[in-house]
Design goal:
By secondary structure, this protein is of the alpha/beta class. About 50% of the residues lie in helices and about 15% in strands. The strands form four sheets. Strands 6, 7, 8, 9, 10, 11 and 12 form a seven-stranded mixed beta sheet that branches. It has a five-stranded parallel beta sheet with strand order 2-1-3-4-5, sandwiched between helices. It is elongated. The relative contact order is 0.07.
């Protein structure tokens, strides 16, 4: 037996030929090459053999008695069981028409007798290779279809998870912002009371400051959720860049002075004063970077901000001036340098990842780890890029550029620093309906509007709002969107439907705690004239009323320092270099007690411990009380640990 017969079967071949000699030659040749061969001498036997044996390839003679090769091929191709078997015709017929017919009825190749053995082998191997590749392709397609189905399922699961996440964020936004609206709003209302003592005014300042800080942390998390959901858009407006930079410099100057830091801003003369981009996002980016630099730069260090016009092909720097009305876009570069602790090379790659903090950040025990993530996303939304260079122990430089369009001064609106004291004389009595299921938020609007001279009524759901609207006919409705019984959307739709029978139209402004921008379209489509997000500032409420009702106010003007009362950075925050020398003078048992009480989050006990030293160490006691006012027990723990270690 030929050794090739023991090799692995390379394929099953059915040979159909009424000439035994041809069968023998082909069978012997193919068997020697490792194929398993079966031969039959007529068409009927061929069809039975093809059905029972399922060969990989058929070699078919054309001229045979009873049933010729064409008929055999036609029947094989007509039956699903055998239709996919490749057929090579082997015939002495060498006319073109014979070959054409063979291919037309389903043949894959045609060999003319007398044949060369090598030619037959080459054509057989070629067709079997094609079939093998087809099988592999079919198998791969089946796998791909399975993968597509699995991926589709995964995408559906991910979409459901994303929807659930968005719903969760929307719910959390409402649940967190609603109480904050009352906290921050009532501090504004109470601050109007001229009879308040200095101590109570300071208490209000602490409440407002803590609420603003909490709101910033909440906004960081919610903003990241909006970014991940792909629903943060570029909101361009024209504004005064120089004024923005002056405001930021003033904001951070106080914090820098408490740490004995040099804070300097440098703006190239070619940088336009009036620009058009997303002012809020640019402000957030600069606050995050400058805040980090001050946080991680030690006593006596330096923070520098460089603002320059980036070299671009259009337009050239010399072609832009601060009052240009050019509509050409260009890039402005912002570079924040500090001489702080620096960032380890191993931490740079993950620096912009969400909830990731550097070693220095973890030691500071401050922030959410989202500032740089949001900064990078915002820079990208403004068509820019951000990068970082840092040397551990020497300092860090963040640099980003954004695309802007030069604007003109007439496009920039100037906000006055003022507070509404009351309504001007000779105006109608404006009726305002406050609709909110949250009693504190309704009361806030009442306390805010009634002293000014507005007539205010309340409703705790949409159904009550419609009843009061029908009987009282308010001029304006402040309408919460999420309420039991009937929500704000249903209420405004019903009001607008009922108004079709009247000539009057009530102004309806939605109050929403949602952070999602697409809610604006939904709110306006429902029939609201406008919307305001919670927590709101009182000046926004008064501005909307003036806009839609034409109300005119008597104002109290304020100087610039008043605007800084709500700053994020405060003089009560003192650097470690202030505390550590003073704490080092204190007895160890006192430090142990303070450390234990702060670790246990026992504020009352901490106050008692601090009070013991008020007479002997008033400077330290007052500074620790400032930390307590800011709920910074974590900072007290860090300071005591540094001394006790």
């Amino acid at each position: 037996m030929n050794k090739n017969n023991t090799e692995e079967n390379r394929g099953n071949i059915l040979i159909i030929d009424d000439t035994p000699e041809n069968l023998q030659v082909l069978s012997a040749t193919l068997c020697d090459r490792g194929y398993k061969v079966r031969g039959v001498i007529n068409g009927k036997m061929a069809i039975r053999a093809a059905k029972s044996g399922s060969p990989d390839l058929i070699l078919l003679d054309i001229k045979m008695p009873e049933m010729n090769g064409y008929e055999v091929c036609t029947q094989l191709k007509a039956q699903p069981q055998t239709s996919e078997i490749p057929i090579i015709f082997i015939s002495a017929l060498d006319e073109v028409l014979d070959k054409v017919k063979a291919f037309e009825i389903g043949g894959v190749d045609y060999i003319t007798k007398p044949f060369q053995v090598e030619e037959v082998l080459a054509r057989v191997e070629h067709q079997l290779t094609i079939k093998r590749l087809q099988k592999e392709l079919i198998a791969r397609n089946i796998e791909l279809q399975k993968e597509i189905i699995e991926r589709k399922k995964a995408e559906e699961i991910a979409a459901a998870a994303s929807k659930a996440k968005s719903q969760f964020v929307a719910n959390m936004s409402h649940e967190l912002r609603t109480p904050l609206n009352a906290i921050l709003g009532f501090t504004q209302v109470m601050s109007r009371d001229s009879s308040l003592s200095h101590e109570n005014i300071e208490n209000l300042r602490i409440i407002n400051r803590s609420g603003q800080h909490l709101l910033e942390l909440i906004n960081d998390v919610l903003d990241l959720s909006k970014i991940e959901a792909g629903i943060v858009a570029l909101n361009e407006s024209s504004f005064d860049l120089y004024q923005l930079l002056d405001t930021l410099e003033e904001m951070f100057q106080i914090k820098a002075e408490t740490k004995n830091l040099q804070l300097k801003f440098f703006v190239e003369s070619q940088v336009p004063q009036y620009i058009k981009t997303d002012e809020k996002k640019l402000r957030v980016c600069l606050i995050n970077l400058l805040g980090n630099s001050i946080k991680f730069t030690g006593n006596g260090g330096e923070i520098l901000l460089y603002v320059s016009l980036k070299n671009t092909s259009q337009p050239a720097e010399s072609e832009i001036d601060s009052n240009s009305n050019s509509t050409e876009q260009c890039f402005i570069s912002f570079e924040v340098q500090d001489t702080g602790v620096g960032i380890a090379l191993a931490e740079v790659d993950t620096l912009f990842n969400a909830f990731v903090q550097t070693e220095a950040g973890r030691k500071a025990a401050d922030g959410t780890g989202l500032g740089l993530t949001i900064t990078k996303k915002y820079v990208q939304i403004m068509d820019g890029n951000i990068g970082v260079n840092s040397v551990l122990g020497e300092g860090t430089t963040f640099k980003f550029d954004i695309k802007i369009s030069p604007a003109i001064s007439s496009e920039v609106s100037i906000t006055k620093l003022q507070r509404v004291l009351g309504l001007e004389a000779e105006q109608p009595v404006y009726r305002i309906l406050a609709v909110d299921d949250n009693m504190e938020n309704r009361l806030l609007l009442v306390k805010m509007l009634q002293p000014i001279g507005f007539e205010v009524r309340e409703a705790e759901n949409g159904r009550q709002a419609i009843e009061i609207w029908e009987s009282w006919q308010p001029d304006l409705i402040w309408l919460d969107t999420r309420m039991p019984v009937m929500d704000g959307f249903e209420a405004v739709i019903e009001i607008r439907a009922k108004e079709k029978n009247t000539r009057s139209r009530t102004v309806v402004i939605a109050l929403t705690a949602s952070i999602f921008e697409e809610r604006k379209g939904e709110i306006i489509t429902a029939g609201c004239d406008d919307f305001v997000r919670k927590p709101f500032q009182e000046q926004v409420i008064f501005e909307k009323i003036a806009q839609y009702l034409g109300a005119r106010y008597i104002y109290q003007e304020f100087s610039v320092p008043f605007a800084t009362r709500g700053r994020r950075y405060f003089t009560s925050e003192k650097p470690d270099s202030f505390f550590l020398p003073l704490l080092a003078e204190m007895p160890k048992n006192w430090l142990d007690e303070l450390d234990d009480a702060a670790n246990d989050v026992n504020e009352e006990l901490v106050i008692e411990i601090v009070d013991r030293i008020s007479d002997s160490h008033p400077t330290l006691a007052n500074a620790l009380k400032d930390l307590l006012d800011d709920y910074r027990l974590d900072r007290i723990v860090n300071l005591t640990q540094l001394i006790l270690e």
